[in-house]
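Per-residue structure
===
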Amino acid sequence: MTPAPIQSLLESRALLLFGRILLTFMFWTSGLVKLFDFQGGMAEMSHFGLEPAWLFNVLTIIVQLGGSLLIIFNRAAWLGAGALAVFTVLTIPLAHPFWKFEGETAFHEMMVVLEHITVIGGLIVVAILGHRGARR
């Protein structure tokens, strides 16, 4: 039996919105940084060998901000979650190839990859819950 105060929190629309905002925090903040510092975003794309840098920066901004907004406002949350999950998977070999490093660097990059995998799990849950909510 769930205690009444906890049940009230779990049924709160405000807490659900807050959770969606927090889950997507790393994406929409990154998208905003790339939008407002477009040159910096392009430098990041070039650093990872993604050319033309301007195009990859624009696509990244669209995926990060668009996917986040779809999840936050629960409009086709499955699409936003799927786009962000695929994006996150793709960042692993591009930005965090821990298998190419040794020692502390390899360990750090592997921890980042494990965090990315955890976020992907959260995005899967959001997609499922968004779909279930849409059926009601």
